[in-house]
Amino acid sequence: MNSKKNDNFVQFFLHLGMENVLKRYFGYDSFRPYQREIIENTQQGRSSLVLMPTGGGKSLCYQLPALMKDGTAIVISPLISLMRDQVRQLRCNVIYAVALNSCEDEMDPMALQRECQDGLVKLIFLSPERLMVELSRLLRSIHISLIAVDEAHCISQWGHDFRPEYSQLGVLRQTFPNVPIIALTATADKVTRFDILNQLNIPDAEVFIGSFDRPNLSLDVRRGLDSYEKRVAIMHFLSQHPGEPGIIYCLSKKNAESVAAFLQAHRIDAAVYHAGLSLFERNRTQEDFLNDKVQVVCATIAFGMGINKGNVRFVIHYNLPKSIENYYQEIGRAGRDGAPADTLLFYNVADIVQLTRFAQTSGQSEINMERLSRMREYAEASVCRRRILLNYFGQETSCDCHNCDVCQHPPQLFDGTKYVQMALSAIVRANQMISMHTCIDILCGIPSLEVGKHQYFKLKTFGVGRDVPVKDWKDYILQMLQRGFVEVMYDQHNHLRVTELGRQVLYGERQAMLSVIIREVFSPKGKRKQYVQKESFPGLWNFPRNEQEEDKELFEVLRRLRLRIAQQKGEPPFVIMSDKVLHQLATYKPTNMQEFGNINGIGEFKCATYGPIFLPVIIQHKSESGN
Ligand code: ADP
Ligand code: ZN
């Protein structure tokens, strides 16, 4: 079945060697951790299970061996948009790939079969349903080099994303007993892992667990802000990310809509994405975001699943997510190109109350409560947040990351016993029948409706805390909750109850330390957070270190140029060139083809295609700006 032509191709790639194929066709200088091992395992005809976080570089693990092996690789993927993006990107690197899905005009099956047999088509992407159909058609008549099962956790009922269509994939092993299978996923837990191997009938597959670290993502958490304060904080944050694409995740449709409306009112190109919109509207938002026509998408969790957009520069969580898995997957959509990206998480008591109610009324309340409490521990942490995340995914580390808010501003503690006692006393005197708001009304001496109704103004504690602003009380009570001095009775109107630990503080048997509140949460406008690379931190990818200063003006010029090229070609801008490449161009300012081709991320074909377009612009900018 393999024609002479096919052999020639493979011989050519083998002759080039893995490193050269990596540079020429993908534009990268080196492999990321485990990519080489996984590719070699496939080359040797063995199956693999690959666990890497989103953005970790899984696709290369099957794309590169697909080039170097005889025949056509089959890639099974659940999402059409993902397939489409990959095919576009591969074709930009002159690798011929095809997606088979019912949505697009497809080429004639006979022609496709011929092109596969001639060794021209190196990868075919298809959905599991389509795979079943093609098993008795196209796949019978072509030589298959390898089978990649993307988002492989969808096969497991234990995973969070089970898809019944995936359960038929067990037939692959029987149908193609000698073809190496690569199952890839970003979901880590052990039960799911075992289940994937079982269901795919590849018990002997080698398991590769890549680093879950994403050192280019900064981690930041802000506690206790109300919705007005959150919006002000978001505006500050956006002023540090002018024109940069990002996602704001909200817990409800209503929130997503109101945040988007707020941003639009402030002249920011924002759109909404949630399940309440029509498929047409959702697709349009997704396309606009992909093409940099919309800057910010305010979305509920559904957004982002199928988006292969490398240059998302920030992800904000307007509310606390349900679990660390969800959180990690969502922030993982930022900075997939490896360039620095910022993440910001807001959480307050209202989130905790609402999520607890969701978890308690869900079918699996015990598991969901446990997930939520791990998420809270993360948000409330006073040690390096990345360490908590990595430990959660089983990748223990004892180094601090220097790229999270705790590392950068370690919390300062003070003896807050006096304040804690005031609040606890108010709660006890009101018979533990008050919510946080009423507690603050009592402490600050505010004659609210609740206070009047229950005559709380007669309490000894009424007004004792009026020297502390309401805002700070909110923060202190949240801290008391975190430290276990009080608990919220979710099933009793969210009333506060004093715990045993709290009682000890109230009766002077224990000191209560509180964190100093930092209100200056954002650095001055225009000053971008510096991404810190720490040699000692494990799992770092190889970024070229920018010893030279980047020319911000040139970056903008190149970005506009990229947009023009993208519009002409009808492709999303990041397909033409990633932000990371543009940053390097604006830093190193190559002036000839060789220097241009040396940039990490520019392969031979991109060099030949875009060098002649970008170089004159860089040279002109250099001469105009005099450096
Ligand atoms: P995943 O499928 O694991 O979510 P991708 O395969 O989409 O991640 O890769 C994420 C990003 O990393 C992409 O922009 C890709 O081009 C880049 N990448 C992959 N491998 C390398 C490498 N060896 N060197 C540099 N960048 C890489
Ligand atoms: Zn840290």
Please describe what this structure looks like.
- The chain is an alpha/beta fold.
- It contains 27 helices and 18 strands.
- The protein has four domains: 3-209, 3-Layer(aba) Sandwich (Rossmann fold), CATH 3.40.50; 217-408, P-loop containing nucleotide triphosphate hydrolases (Rossmann fold, 3-Layer(aba) Sandwich); 413-515, Arc Repressor Mutant, subunit A (Orthogonal Bundle); 552-625, Orthogonal Bundle (DNA polymerase, domain 1), CATH 1.10.150.80.
- Strands 3-4-2-5-6-1-7 form a seven-stranded parallel sheet, with helices on both faces. Strands 8, 9, 10, 11, 12, 13 and 14 form a seven-stranded parallel sheet that branches.
- Helix 12 (279-290) links the parallel strand 11 and strand 12 (296-299).
- Helix 14 (349-361) packs antiparallel against helix 15, helix 18 (417-429) crosses helix 22 (500-506) and helix 23 (552-569) crosses helix 27.
- The N and C termini lie far apart (58 Å).
- Residues 520-546 have low confidence and may be disordered.
- The protein binds adenosine-5'-diphosphate and zinc ion (ZN).
- Zinc ion binds at residues 384-386, 400-401, 404, 406-407.
